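Worked example

This section walks through a single chain of length 295. The input is the sequence exactly as stored; nothing has been trimmed or padded.
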Amino acid sequence: MQTVILAAGEGTRMQPLTARRPKPMLPVGDRPLVAHTADAAVEADASRLVFVVSYEADAVREWFGTEYAGVPVEYAVQRHQRGTADAVRAAKERLDDEPFAVLNGDGLYDSASLERLYDAAPAVGAHEVDDPRPFGVMDVEDGVVTDVVEKPNDPPSNRVNVGAYAFPATAREWLDVPESERGEHEITDVLARVVDAFDLTAVDVGFWLGVGRPWELLEANEWFLDGIDRRVDGDVSPDAELSGPVVVEDGATVESGVIVEGPTLIRSGASVGPNRTSGARAWLARTRRSATRSR
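Given that input, the structure is written out below as tokens.
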């Protein structure tokens, strides 16, 4: 399915991390946040990726190019950030007259759930949370969405909208929605039109993490580290000790007397040691003199 990935966000709540790059390009492990989103889409059998870009757009273009993991890549520019429906509208001319998916570029999803979403179109991804009030909350009957309420004081359920959609082709003509009270054109208003015209399936998303604040970026990196396997491509001293899932990238150096406990990622260009100890869930990157640790 042709898939639009929203990557135009500046990420003001992530400042100063986003001073020189858009929020979707913040690092999660060994690649940008939005690359994990794209990976899940490709694994779910996306036929084409259309990235909506704006702030620091070249960072996205340089990473993905014109093809990513064997899938064609195109770009659409959102001139002014006027909401998610406006962002998808910017990609309208890049879409064929076929069903299409839309994914938030600052969201992590498992590929199996996206595959179910694609197969169930028209559909929206749902995830149960303890406190749904900060989210768009779904009212669902027999697996069909009857309403989506934004940030309700009295939520109808604990199932929230995770920013993953599979729209019918006709939704391309429903993107010109009026401004909301926030002064934005909201994709949830497009979703409301789909609810009126179709049976909109709520697809449960097994894993989802929305990354909008610094502590959620830390959580995303913990998720990445918890999933890594041991791999040593760099230069490791014979008397260094690596314990558990540790990745040493090509171009990284682990010097004499170093003890590293996994899960840990040592990035290309980093030099660790000598005679240092690194605990679990560390991310070591290059500095002028040694390695810096992020947790």
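What to look for: The mean pLDDT is 90.
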